Amino acid sequence: MIEKLTANELTALLNELPGWKTDDSATSIHRSFKFADFNEAFGFMTRVAIKAQEMDHHPEWSNVYNKVEITLSTHEAKGLTSRDAKLARFIDSITKTSADA
Ligand code: H2B
């Protein structure tokens, strides 16, 4: 069973990835993205989907035209783990800051 991030690890992660915020119970992180149009949003989602499938770690997300909402959590651990950190880092690495909603 994968371990949850410690409080210190979570604080460090949020400092490293300032676009992401935790929910009140600190069991997930969330970020909103806004793209030029649906084509860009769906292209982004496709890249995230391929990575998620490779990692066997999947986002909760929604898309409305050019907006994408992503929540990351590790169901198996009922909280945040290094898998969420890795996927969030990947997502940020393929996203320009202008995609912040
Ligand atoms: N994604 C997320 N976010 N959390 C999980 O615990 C998880 C997953 N578990 N994707 C994986 C799939 C598991 O169900 C399969 C069987 O490996």
From TrEMBL:
Catalytic activity: (4aS,6R)-4a-hydroxy-L-erythro-5,6,7,8-tetrahydrobiopterin = (6R)-L-erythro-6,7-dihydrobiopterin + H2O
Key words, A-Z: Lyase
Record's keyword annotation contains Lyase: yes
Entry GO MF terms: 4-alpha-hydroxytetrahydrobiopterin dehydratase activity
Principal EC category: lyase
Lineage top rank: taxon: Bacteria
GO biological process: tetrahydrobiopterin biosynthetic process
Its EC number(s): 4.2.1.96
Pfam families attached to this UniProt entry: Pterin_4a (PF01329)
Similarity section: Belongs to the pterin-4-alpha-carbinolamine dehydratase family.
Protein name as it appears in the record: Putative pterin-4-alpha-carbinolamine dehydratase
Biological source species: Caballeronia sordidicola (Burkholderia sordidicola)
